[in-house]
Amino acid sequence: MRVTVTTAAGPAARAVDVWKVYGSGEAQVIALRGVSVDLARGRFTAIMGPSGSGKSTLMHCLAGLDNVTRGTITIGDTTVTGLGDAGLTRLRRDKVGFVFQQFNLLPTLTAEENILLPLAIAGRKPDPTWFDTVIDTVGLRDRLHHRPAQLSGGQQQRVACARALVARPEVIFADEPTGNLDSHAGADVLGFLRNSVRDHGQTIVMVTHDPVAASYADRVVFLADGQIVDELHDPDAEAVLDRLKNLDVTAVTEGAEGV
Ligand code: ADP
Hints:
The chain is α/β, with parallel strands linked by helices. It has a single domain (2-257), classed as Rossmann fold (3-Layer(aba) Sandwich), CATH 3.40.50. Helix content is 37%, strand content 24%. The chain has helices at residues 55-62, 85-94, 111-121, 128-137, 153-166, 183-200, 211-214, 237-258, and strands at 13-22, 29-39, 44-48, 70-75, 78-79, 96-100, 171-175, 204-207, 219-224, 227-233. It has a six-stranded mixed sheet with strand order 6-7-8-3-9-10, with helices on both faces. Strands 2-1-4-5 form a four-stranded antiparallel sheet, with helices on one face. Helix 3 packs parallel to helix 5 and helix 5 (153-166) runs parallel beside helix 6. The radius of gyration is 19 Å and the shape is globular. It starts with 12 loop residues before the first strand and ends with a helix. The site of adenosine-5'-diphosphate has 12 residues, from strand 2 and helix 1. Adenosine-5'-diphosphate binds next to strand 2 and helix 1.
């Protein structure tokens, strides 16, 4: 008899003393300087910080899209930093979902085919009840047979959200998911992401530079110059904006001192 033990305890994703160095010599950039963070299961975490502070690098390292220079990343009970190419492919296929700024839908496939593609690649069958729940949640029932070019930006991003949600991954990583949307469509998408955390226990990690987008999260982690420098819980947009202004002032002051 095979017994499957699931470890629901512990964070969905964890970084321990993660360093990321690009290039070498004069061209060397230290993008992450010893980042340690636990991203709680069933929570919505936003990563914020000034441009160039290391947000995308951290997300890519957490998601197994980029390797770290030093330190450890875990997703659930998988140590990402120990995986080879095949292991990383399995991790991205089975444990993580992505929502990108540019939607990244396949233009020749319908909305429904796009949504089901990751499961098809993984050889998994969709759970029909869950598929229906996701489709109704994101309001795509009457758009399932449209191709991306026949959909608005907001609808395309809803397809991308459904594609990520339908596989019930351990973590969904969203990279500026509202960056290409008007504020109304952006609010819709953020609402779906928020509800999938609240109603279905999905874990979401989102990189954004928008304080309003971050206010949908349970927790905001602030990066500056490759380090975590602050965090907020249950934030509103004003509090996020205040902290960001502080970070910019600190960064400018530190830069001036170095001159
Ligand atoms: P953010 O997402 O906060 O804007 P990034 O993570 O994109 O910041 O970048 C952090 C730092 O690492 C920046 O100085 C950036 O120029 C540098 N960087 C990012 N990617 C690369 C790369 N592929 N090669 C060299 N430097 C990079």
